[in-house]
Amino acid sequence: VQLQASGGGLVQAGGSLRLSCAASGSIFSINNMGWYRQAPGKQRDLVAGITRAGTTNYADSVKGRFTISWDNAKNTVYLQMNSLKSEDTAVYYCNAVVLGGMARWGKGTQVTVSS
Predict the structure, then answer these.
(1) Comparing C-alpha atoms, which of 12, 22, 21 is closest to residue 111?
(2) Is 94 strand, coil or helix?
(3) Distances from the Cα of 77 to the Cαs of 17, 86, 107, in angstroms?
(4) pLDDT at residue 67, rounded to an integer
(5) Would you list the DSSP string of 17-71?
(6) Residues near 35 by beta carbon (within 8 Å), at least 6 away in sequence
(7) Buried b / exposed e along 55-76 (16+ C-beta atoms within 10 A)
(8) pLDDT at position 98, please?
(9) Residue 25 has what pLDDT?
(10) What is the pLDDT of residue 51?
């Protein structure tokens, strides 16, 4: 499984961005997908996750502002980010958990929120 993330950029506080993660390869093997983020000097943390059945979970810090979705036809997972805050600034990574529990990672995409 290969993951290609896109959609990062610079936005003012209160603005919106949508991240995309296109999966290719052994798509059938993917059980869950998600977005993580890592700010400078901090660990990589889960932002949002989604299962094939559509069950979602979010970090408390983004609940009500971010929405994760999975377009099966396009093999793409999206992260809609609204009401962005400076503390959302980080490198965002797409993740897929495949059969057997192995994790696959895409290259990160930078999100910078200016206050």
Answers:
(1) 12
(2) strand
(3) 14, 24, 14
(4) 98
(5) EEEEEEEESSGGGEEEEEEEEE-TTS--EEEEEEETT--EEE-TTTTTTEEEEEE
(6) 19, 21, 46, 47, 48, 49, 68, 77, 79, 92, 93, 94, 95
(7) eeebeeebeeebbbebeeeebb
(8) 93
(9) 93
(10) 95
The pLDDT value given to residue 108: 95
Only one residue has tokens 């296109």, namely 22
**Would you tell me how many other CB atoms lie within 10 Å of the CB of residue 8?**
18
* Ranges of the chain with pLDDT below 70: none
Look up residue 107 and give its amino acid.
Answer: K
Contact 53, 110 (CB under 8 A): no
Phi, psi of 10 (to 5 degrees): -105, 130
Question: To 10 degrees, the CA torsion angle through 80, 84, 89, 94?
Answer: -10
pLDDT for the residue 77? 97
